Amino acid sequence: MRWKSSPAPEPSSRPSGSCPPPPSHRRPPVSTPPASRPCSAPCARRPRIHAITNPVAQTYTANMLLAVGAEPSMTSSAEEVAAFVAASDALLINLGMLDNARRDASLTAIEVAKAEGVRWVLDPVKVHVSPPRLAFARDLVGMEPAFVRANHAEIVGLGAAEPEEFATRQLAVSSLTTIALSGAVDIVTDGIRVLRVANGHPLMDRVTAMGCAGTAVAAAFLAVEPDPVAAAAAALVVLGIAGEIAAASANGPGSFAIEMLDALYGLDETQVVARARLL
């Protein structure tokens, strides 16, 4: 993802148009951009994102993070996870295909993240299907994620009476967090502010790991934007626009998955501002 406002990369062997080499770790946060510029720029900062995610999603998640300019890492090894989280700018906890090893790794990662000031995002995948996973997700919500991204069934499982805006706002207030509710129109709220994102395409629901990888991209935005509402909404706008662009040249889900990566990589600020549909 390229942005006109980003500093030009220093001369190197990297391909033209690609992101500059990463600066030193622990960059200070970027302030919220004006409303006319709804997105921060991970490409300009190269944030390190540690993703504890399900095996089905790992490859596509890594490629999506690289496409927006972030640096992914994904180990859930008990011996390594603490060091990787401490060296990261944001953390994703994805509960898909949850097993005991990743459950323990998630708890360790969150403990380290809180100690090191690394903000984290929760993706409660299919918690409405599994009572043990739901109980674990509810425990994690109490550990202060910067935001939770979920679909309608998952948000009801977490405690919303209905997958609608008012109930989602109530859940955000009771959970003391920001909620990003995926749907035909995405809703992002901290219980007080509400942003609605209408960008996207139906093919985004036909590719395995698209949602999981999208939440990782939202974590990358959180790494460079201190306001969780702005970060989540900006990520959803960028993902939705990339999906629209990808769908225009895709023949189906298979080619769409590849076109999505290319669309994310080629997206610039002018396109985002022109195409964003914030309601």
Q: Mind explaining what this structure looks like?
A:
- By secondary structure, the chain is α/β, with parallel strands linked by helices.
- Helix content is 44%, strand content 12%.
- It has helices spanning 42-45, 58-67, 81-86, 100-116, 131-141, 152-158, 165-175, 210-224, 228-249, 253-266, 269-275; strands at 48-52, 71-73, 90-94, 119-123, 147-150, 178-181, 186-189, 194-197.
- Strands 2-1-3-4-5-6-7-8 form an 8-stranded mixed sheet, with helices on both faces.
- Helix 2 packs across helix 8, helix 2 (58-67) runs parallel beside helix 10 (253-266) and helix 9 (228-249) packs across helix 10 (253-266).
- It is globular, with a radius of gyration of 17 Å.
- The two termini are 24 Å apart.
- Residues 3-40 have low confidence and may be disordered.
Write a concise synopsis of the structure shown.
With 279 residues, this protein is of the alpha/beta class. It has helices spanning 42-45, 58-67, 81-86, 100-116, 131-141, 152-158, 165-175, 210-224, 228-249, 253-266, 269-275; strands at 48-52, 71-73, 90-94, 119-123, 147-150, 178-181, 186-189, 194-197. An 8-stranded mixed beta sheet has the order 2-1-3-4-5-6-7-8, sandwiched between helices.
